[in-house]
Amino acid sequence: MLPAGFFTRVTGRPFSSPRETTRAYNVVIFGETGVGKSSLINLITGLHQAKTSPDVDSCTERNQDYEVTIADRKFKIWDTAGLNGGTFSRIHAAIADRNLRRFLSKLHKKGELDLLIYCVRASRTTQALVRHYKKFYSSVCKRSVPVVVIVTCLENTPGEMDSWWQRNVGNFGKLGMVFAGHACVTTIADDPGDTASLRARREYSGRAVRSLIYENCRPHKLHTY
């Protein structure tokens, strides 16, 4: 994991030098409605940029990118519409499904999809969870892009948050879901009334997620001019 003081900044300027250039790493977060994808974006950037919602309706209607620099690399973190649609109609859910498929396919064909993040809640494994994994990772991306899983809503779990993964990793494997890495986190927004324990969990979560992203994006080949 990256050290606690690892520098992260949000920027609108490309990371470049006079002789070398490289595009930003494209990291796409996907998952069901209400799992905390937008809150995860805010955790990564350290800013409240992405709109969040306390209910189960999707607050992200289109693909939205947020630029962030982690150490010496520039990333575009993509927030996507929630799958399964919450209380929206089946038509809305189908549109979100179709748009994500097209977006991933476009990036993948161009060779510009660097990492998939499957965002899930800390609950039992469902058929929908498996279906989305197979559809977007196995079918669209042909298992050729790294995929990691981030488990949210663990702020109140007893002991270390990562203990959830130790108890449940076997279930993922039995269902054919294999990941290059994982992080068990809380994405709850900071509040002046938070306990020291919750603040520590949130700080740990930010470091864990940024490390996961940095370590699972393959270095680009730099072009010199």
UniProtKB/TrEMBL annotation:
<feature type="domain" description="G">
    <location>
        <begin position="26"/>
        <end position="150"/>
    </location>
</feature>
<dbReference type="InterPro" id="IPR006073">
    <property type="entry name" value="GTP-bd"/>
</dbReference>
<protein>
    <recommendedName>
        <fullName>G domain-containing protein</fullName>
    </recommendedName>
</protein>
<dbReference type="GO" id="GO:0005525">
    <property type="term" value="F:GTP binding"/>
</dbReference>
<dbReference type="Pfam" id="PF01926">
    <property type="entry name" value="MMR_HSR1"/>
</dbReference>
<dbReference type="InterPro" id="IPR025662">
    <property type="entry name" value="Sigma_54_int_dom_ATP-bd_1"/>
</dbReference>
<dbReference type="InterPro" id="IPR027417">
    <property type="entry name" value="P-loop_NTPase"/>
</dbReference>
